[in-house]
Amino acid sequence: MVPSGREGAIAAPLAWRLDERLREVPLDVHAFAKAVDAMVDEIAAARSQPARLLAMLTEAAPLLRITGRLEEARKTASAAIALAELVEDPRAVLVNQQALAQSMQRERRFDISTPLFDQLISQARSIPLYADRLHAVLFDAGRNLFDQKRYPEAARFFRESQALRRGEGLEELLEASAEALRRTKRAAEEG
């Protein structure tokens, strides 16, 4: 898998898979880290170009989280949110709030991640501009609940995400939803 969840959409160095904890794990840790480092270096050069900088920050935040550079991921997502608000790009605000929520989840700061995911779900359900992001927000909110061992709630979000993905013809993402449901069921049984 890759950050967008689409196989082959990103160059091989940034390929990843979901582990047993439903976290992204690079297929090649060294190549992934090297590619992320190169991206971070590029960000410094793009500071005078807001649109390019926003795109780069938006791409880098989840990749930094995957490499375990959680503080950098949180700061990158926060900078992207601020820049997206400045340039009035509401979709970029939502995408980067999702990245921030994921970073807070990985830091086990559920007091922040859970309400943020609740807010993102509400926005994706109620604002047409964000409707196509609902499946991804639900999936990530389910992973947040999975980390908290709130398995019935996580399974509900995974099932809804899976139904949306099926309805939208996102075949390449259906296996991730199915795997999340299998692992959630197994974790609940082992409880």
How would you describe the overall organization of this protein?
The protein is mostly helical and 191 residues long. The chain has one domain (12-190): Alpha Horseshoe (Serine Threonine Protein Phosphatase 5, Tetratricopeptide repeat). It is built from eight helices and two strands. The chain has helices at 29-45, 50-66, 70-86, 90-106, 110-126, 134-147, 151-167, 171-190; strands at 16-18, 24-26. A two-stranded antiparallel ribbon has the order 1-2. Strand 1 and strand 2 (24-26) form a beta hairpin. Helix 6 packs antiparallel against helix 7 (151-167). The longest helix is centred in the C-terminal third of the chain and has 20 residues, at 171-190. The protein is globular. The two termini are 28 Å apart. Mean pLDDT is 93; it is low at 1-10.
Shape: globular
Could you spell the SSE succession in H and E letters?
EEHHHHHHHH
Please outline the major beta sheet: 2 strands, antiparallel
CA-based gyration radius: 16 Å
Instruction: Provide a count of the helices.
Output: 8
Secondary structure layout plus pairing:
Layout: E1 16-18, E2 24-26, H1 29-45, H2 50-66, H3 70-86, H4 90-106, H5 110-126, H6 134-147, H7 151-167, H8 171-190
Antiparallel strand pairs: 1-2
Helix pairs in contact: 1-2, 2-3, 2-4, 3-4, 4-5, 4-6, 5-6, 6-7, 7-8
